[in-house]
Amino acid sequence: MLTEIQHKLLFFPDFDTIQSHISISADCICTVRSGKKMGFLVTTLIFVVVGVIASLCARICCNRGPSTNLLHLTLIITATVCCWMMWAIVYLAQLKPLIVPVLSEGE
Fold it and tell me: Are the CB atoms for 32 and 98 separated by under 8 Å?
């Protein structure tokens, strides 16, 4: 049998009902439920640091002229931004899903 809260979430999935039963704070992006501060901003900084290190390595190891250096820098920045965007989309999709899960009668 469904509880009253489950019944409201399944059959009346409006924003007020969902918001009243799910507590999401303003800094939920930065805080994982265990209380650690390993979240969106820290991982974004990790991506920035990795991108800067890769750019410096390419500049030092593959110094073949101004146009080649610009190409290498452009490729590294593009790859870093694309990887970060993929990670951010997956992270935010798991943090606040768009589809409310539908429970079966046995759950």
Answer: no
Cα dihedral across residues 58, 61, 66, 68: positive or negative? negative
Q: What is the pLDDT of residues 32-49, one digit of tens each?
A: 444 444 688 999 999 999
20 found inside a domain: yes
- pTM for the complete prediction? 0.58
Q: Which amino acid is at 24?
A: I
Residue 55 contacts residue 73 (beta carbons within 8 Å): yes
Quote the number of domains for the chain.
2
Whose structure tokens read 């303003």?
A: 26
**Residues ≥6 apart with Cβ < 8 Å to 73:** 55, 58, 59
Say how many residues make up the chain.
107
- Give the structural domain span for 1: 1-25
